Amino acid sequence: MAKQPDSTDRPSAETLDETQARLKNGTKGAPTPSRAAQEAARKRPLVPDDRKEAAKQARARAAESREKARVGMAMGEEKYLPMRDRGPQKKYVRDYIDARFSVGEVLIPVMFAVIVLTFIPSPEVQYAGILALWAFFAIAVIDVVVLGFILNKKLAAKFGADKVEKVRWYAAMRALQLRPLRLPKPQVKRGQYPS
Length: 195
Description:
Elements: H1 16-24, H2 35-42, H3 51-74, H4 88-99, H5 107-117, H6 123-159, H7 168-175
Helix pairs in contact: 4-7, 5-6, 6-7
Keywords: Membrane, Transmembrane, Transmembrane helix
InterPro entries: DUF3043
Region (Disordered): 1-71
């Protein structure tokens, strides 16, 4: 005759709290919860209870991510840069331009000085100021054109002639900006040319 199991041989039923505590600790020994139970545990309301607080938290998270992206871009981190600034060739161009002095860097201060000169009632002074501005502008353009040729040669030597991107316009726009206003910020000092 078969022996009947008594009540001491059966495992005791766990309470819900005990099961949840055991699952939080990561121990096995319980059946996998059903899909319905898992979905019910993940459900969150579409609209939070306190909408003002939720909006405030969302704005804070967005502001924090924007600040992180702004700092990352200023520091030249690749993942935060816009597409026009990404890649090793663009980094080389930025470092080369930041290492040298470009005539175009002082174009804005010269233009401001010419504007001040136009307020002087003397036509000779105004004419000389405008003439000097055009001469300076021509020198800046020549400097940028020469810079484009130099950079194309250096990029071809470093990355291969068949892989050189068109960077003349990119280089010109960076060379014509004041050094403190450039983004991403200069990562090299004057005279520290990239290898």
